[in-house]
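Can anyone check this?
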Amino acid sequence: MGVTVKERRPNEFWIYINHNGKRKAKKIGRDQSKAEAIAKQIEARLVLGDFNMAPSKTPPSFGKYCELWLADYIKITKRTTTYQRYNSLFTTYIKPAIGKIPITELKRSDVRSLFLKMRKQELSRSSIASAKNVISGVLEYAIDEEIIKDNVSKGVLRRLGLDSHEGRELARGMTPQEVELFLATCLKYDRAWHPFFLCAFRSGCRLGELLGLEWGDVDFNGRFIQVQRSFRNGRLTPTKTGKVRRVDMSDQLHRELGELLTKRKTEALKAGTGEVVEIVFHTNGAHTSQNTVRNVWKRLLPKAGLSDRRIHDIRHTYASILLSTGASPVYVKEQLGHSSIQMTVDIYGHLIPSGNREAVNRLDTPKLDATQAQPTKIKIP
């Protein structure tokens, strides 16, 4: 019996299981520590005889197998919020509908009925797409372990017209005029929050990334912010993609953050400590909760005469204004920290200017006009 972790390719870690004469391999990803943690859990389950390496007369139910997938894979390899969202969807919708069905007997019609029921209950497309991710993830896991051969959830959302690309529920971005109106309202009614919201509108950072910013991340000479962590649910985590990125600062944001740092230094001197709190947007020296920011956002919107919307729409506003003014989709992708340019185009492609008709006209054959020089006629003597 043995469970080992090997790096098959650079930054690609696999788990190899050798048990009772049977061998299996499973690709984990780029994080070696997570691969080793999963390997330890699998080894412990093998010792207890609670791992489906040996043939079983009765295949596990989908619900039972999903619980194993959530505990052994999602909880370890994904963010806490992802695990909580997936587990909630499983408990509330998936388990009651298809949880008791043996995983080998799950049919496409079962999955389709579940999605239609969720839509009838007026769940958002994103929630249904997340439920599809759960079901598909479990089935792919079962395929790797040779329990089933096909993923019956593939293509179901597309055929129902509920996938994330068709009929996308567009974000409610704001116009430049609405942005300036909101910021002016913030200055009037809650000046202390102006640096935070200006940073949000000028950087496009996610809410958790803004709350996780430290002064060491702000390069005033290079005029950029290094985004490398997020604060959510009371804890610091890596960014959503796990990558560090640089976000350029506009002149206005550069000036505002400089003034805020000067203010923080003055406060530190008055307090007698002389040490500035490292967190940029702190509350009494500690990280600010996301709900606190949302409450301020909801309070300022009506004061500015703006309709209700999500705070995440600030990020969409940032991207849409950049693209509509001619910024490169590649630049926007890097600023937002998207994992691929395809994601940027899928979400914001409708905002990319497409009216370059003059450029297209250059492909046409040039027309000769009356003033154009004509070839000289040569008289032959």
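Reply from J.R.: I decoded it. Confidence is low (pLDDT under 50) at residues 165-170.
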